[in-house]
Specification:
- The structure holds two protein chains of two kinds.
- Chain A is built from 13 helices and 15 strands.
- In chain A, the strands form three sheets. In chain A, strands 3-5-1-12-9-10-11 form a seven-stranded mixed β-sheet. Chain A has a five-stranded mixed β-sheet with strand order 7-15-14-13-8. Chain A has a three-stranded antiparallel β-sheet with strand order 4-2-6.
- The longest helix of chain A is centred in the last third of the chain and has 18 residues.
- In chain A, β13 and β14 form a beta hairpin.
- Chain A is an alpha+beta fold.
- Chain B has a four-stranded mixed β-sheet.
- Chain B is elongated, with a radius of gyration of 27 Å.
- The two termini of chain B are 40 Å apart.
- The chains are: A alpha+beta, B alpha+beta.
- The interface between A and B is large, with 138 and 136 residues.
């Protein structure tokens, strides 16, 4: 019997639904301490004074970790991809969002740890905060980030992710109609049932075992190794079974600080976020601000697209510059649009940093561009299926970055849906394929993009 | 007060693997003395079912029953690197690493079998746990017997290693965004139709029916891929009409910190869902598979927003489409878009034209 193609039950499904799967918080080891974090109560402030002496002296408290305990305080998760680091593991002289971690206390139990957190003495000098990405480039905008209010380190140190293709001005001149609109998909919670949790166990060998809920064992191990300045063979990550992860559990939110507390106390340390922390302190899906103007002909060809994207990254970069780039690569959606002018900014605000989440960079594109295409169909009075089929990617059409599509199935998926809901289409739409463009489906404005086509 | 029904559609695409690639996965396999198979992979299973999928790939590539596979992704001492479970890459990229490891182990297994049968390895195949001579099915030896011979006769350990790395696609021109090679491992496609019912008195939008068609390349496990698509539909529904961290975005005030003040889709919100699986095999995916896990929540929000327009004649372009937004849009229904020359201009009030300072770098001029 072949396994591929078979409706086999989930490998670990029975254990999940009978409560026998072991998640990180199910692991208990002897002499384990519990951790709680001091987090910023304000959106944006200078830290004038941080004194942990009283907290550290409390009975049952075994370690208070601050920025001074971190061998490498700033490590960017995507440094290997050329995106430099900007976020300290613990706040040093300023906080840029409410809930930013400042110190971690490890104590005999969570209540003691929390009392010690409350005993930490801290003074702030509050600063004005920036929340609206649209106002981030205003002359009087508060400064949210030390690099300025948007990411300045794309290739060639550009501060904007650009796509340019064809001749956008000509497309707008030639258009019969230009339709513009603004689209704002919201931040949503990641909301895994298993909150961010780690258990760090110092081993007699000098190694550290870290029980982790990460979506990426080696990636997170690399992050911990970088902050600790350790080689990988001193670390062992245990995990692989995650109680829900939608992108947020690539953040490595708890592992490094748990390891530092374990090192400082010499005891195993578990840090598990409360449900309230999971809601208020974990990174969300990003809110996006997207403006689109499409140049179209009265018979439904999309000649060109201008687009401005402001991605709300929150207080630090995390994975956001990557998300903006991915967004730009897909900003034509499932269609071929020969003339493009795209500007995307990764904008900083004083909110909890946003991060990768299911569909990263593209969920926002799908929402805004597809709703926009629906509007174009409405403005032109053209059947929305027919408009889409006409402009749908076909073999040999090229992406925004000039890569030819080899196996698009936009046409077949659209026809399947038309069939499923009983939407009647004229014969020329119904019989459409993904084959390379020819005849009426290769109008003059697309010849240049597709190249010479044998008829 | 009236209830209005409307329909909308969408069509989307989504890449498999990290944008610009360069994201390796590795796997290795060892075969126990009784022929049972241990697969070591670094892929975390975040609920996506990658343990099952990768075990299925290993079983068929080796030619042994699925039940013979033990899958271990539990720690970094025994499992090799996987970049991670994100970017819709676990089936395609990590699955390919497992496939290559299994093919590599199979080759070593056939070499031992060839010695036992005195037949060249290339003239052998493995079917249902038995090594069989091609064209002479009576000449055969079971995989457990081969594994035993490897262990006790030849002093060998049958292992296999595999790695998958789609080369990094560099941006060669930051002015235009041009890249030097495909920036994805594959691309998947989907289309969706939504039917909604809108109450013009309360502003409530109820999603009644979703039809979804996904090109998955190849459904390695139809039940699991349907689960991805249907679970994704609910997440997309949440994005469309229910969920928001910041009810007064961009303000950070009034965030909820509990389930009681944050609306995720529940069973009462579940619409009728029709799922159509299209198999357009990827040339490079394991058994033709592509990744569709993330895109599963992408087509619903635009289809639902379009269906709301179809129902009540207003475009709500800020998510989620809450009763408040529906009612405010209805109040301004007569206003419509602004026409200027050949321009049709929607949403002036939301634009940087209106909100940003005139000297702002963020500009989006419209109109003649």
């Amino acid at each position: 019997m072949k396994a591929v193609g078979a409706r086999l039950p989930r490998y670990d499904g029975v254990a999940h639904v009978t409560g026998r799967t072991q998640y990180v918080d199910d692991v208990r080891v002897p002499n384990m301490l519990w951790a709680k974090a001091l987090r910023s109560p304000v959106d944006h402030a200078a830290i004038k004074k941080l004194d942990v002496k009283k907290a550290a002296a409390m009975k049952g408290v075994h370690a208070v970790v601050t920025w001074e305990d971190v061998p490498r305080l700033v490590y960017g998760h995507l440094e290997a991809l050329g995106i430099p680091g900007d976020e300290p593991l613990l706040a040093k002289d300023e906080v840029r969002y409410k809930a930013q971690p400042i110190a971690l206390v490890a104590a005999e139990d969570e209540e003691t740890a929390q009392l010690a957190v409350e005993a930490i003495q801290i003074d702030f000098d509050e600063r004005p905060a920036l929340f609206d990405v649209r106002k981030a480039a205003d002359p009087d905008a508060p400064q949210a980030h030390h690099w300025g209010n948007w990411y300045p380190h794309f290739e060639a140190e550009m501060d904007v992710r650009q796509i340019r293709k064809g001749d956008i001005d000509r497309a707008f001149d030639q258009a019969d109609t230009i339709v513009s609109g603004v689209y704002r998909p919201a931040a949503i919670e990641q909301l895994p049932l298993e909150t961010q949790t780690a258990l760090a166990v110092p081993e007699p060998s000098g190694r550290m075992t870290i029980y982790s809920c990460t979506q990426a064992l080696y990636f997170s191990m690399g992050v911990v190794a970088a902050h600790l300045e350790w080689p990988l063979n001193k670390l062992k990550f245990v995990g692989g079974t995650v109680g829900g992860g939608f992108g947020g559990k690539v953040d490595t939110a708890t592992e490094t600080l748990s390891a530092l507390a374990a090192l400082k106390s010499g005891r195993p340390v578990k840090w598990r976020w409360t449900r309230e922390e999971e809601f208020l302190c974990s990174s969300t899906r990003a809110p996006w601000h997207i403006e689109i103007a499409d140049a179209v002909t009265k018979d439904g060809w999309i000649l060109g697209r201008r687009m401005l994207t402001l991605h709300d990254s929150g207080a630090y970069s995390r994975f956001s510059p990557y998300g903006v780039t991915k967004h730009s690569f897909h900003h034509t959606g499932a269609y071929t649009i020969p003339n493009l002018h795209f500007d995307g900014y990764c904008v900083y605000t004083n909110r909890v940093p946003t991060t990768a989440m299911r569909g990263f960079g593209v969920t926002s594109v799908s929402f805004s561009t597809e709703l926009h295409v629906s509007r174009i169909a409405e403005v032109l009075g053209i059947d929305p299926f027919e408009l889409r089929l006409k402009n749908a990617n076909r073999i040999g059409d090229t992406s925004p970055n000039g890569i030819a599509y080899s196996d698009p199935s936009t046409v077949s998926t659209i026809l399947s849906i038309a069939d499923a809901i009983g939407h009647e289409l004229p014969a020329d739409s119904r019989t459409m394929t993904r084959d390379p463009r020819a005849g009426e489906l290769l109008p003059k404005h697309l010849v240049e993009q597709v190249g010479k086509v044998d008829h | 007060m009236a209830l209005h029904t409307g329909r909308g559609i969408s069509a989307i695409e989504y890449p498999t693997g990290m944008n610009q690639n360069g994201d390796p996965s590795q796997a290795w396999i060892k075969i126990k003395p009784d022929g049972r198979v241990d697969v070591f992979s670094g892929t975390s299973d975040i609920g996506n079912g990658s343990k099952t999928i990768q075990s299925q790939i290993a079983a068929d590539t080796l030619g042994v029953p699925y039940e013979w596979i033990t899958y271990d992704n539990s720690n970094t001492d025994s499992s090799p690197l996987c970049t991670g479970t994100f970017a819709s890459r676990a089936t395609f990229v990590a699955g390919n690493a497992v496939l290559k490891a299994a093919a590599n182990a199979k080759q070593k297994l056939l070499e031992i079998a060839g010695k036992e049968l005195e037949i060249a390895p290339e003239d052998l195949e493995i079917i249902d746990g038995e090594v069989i001579a091609k064209g002479s099915p009576q000449k055969k030896i079971s995989v457990p017997d081969v594994a035993a011979a490897a262990t006790w006769t030849y002093g060998e350990l049958i292992t296999g290693t595999g790695a998958q790395l789609n080369p990094y696609a560099a941006i060669v021109d930051p002015e235009t965004g041009r890249v030097d090679s495909p920036p994805h491992a594959a691309i998947s496609y989907a289309a969706c139709a939504a039917e909604v019912e809108v109450d013009d008195e309360t502003g409530e939008v109820r999603v009644e029916h979703l039809w979804q068609c996904f090109d998955v390349g190849r459904a390695i496990n139809p039940t699991l891929v349907e689960g991805q698509i249907q679970g994704g539909a609910l997440m997309g529904l949440g994005l469309a009409v229910l969920e928001e961290c910041y009810p007064y975005y961009p303000s950070v005030e009034h965030r909820g910190g509990e389930f009681g003040s944050y609306f995720v889709p529940g069973i009462k919100d579940l619409p009728k869902i029709d799922t159509i699986i299209l198999e357009n095999p990827s040339a490079d995916g394991p058994y033709g598979a592509k990744g569709i896990s993330e895109m599963a929540n992408n087509p619903q929000p635009p289809a639902i927003a379009t269906a709301v327009f179809d129902a009540i004649g207003v475009w709500v372009t800020e998510l989620p489409i809450t009763p408040e937004r529906v009612l405010r849009a209805l109040e301004r229904k007569e206003q419509g878009p602004r026409r200027e020359g050949k321009w049709t201009i929607f949403d002036d009030d939301l634009s940087v034209r209106t909100v940003a300072h005139e000297k702002s770098r963020f500009r989006f001029p419209v109109g003649a």
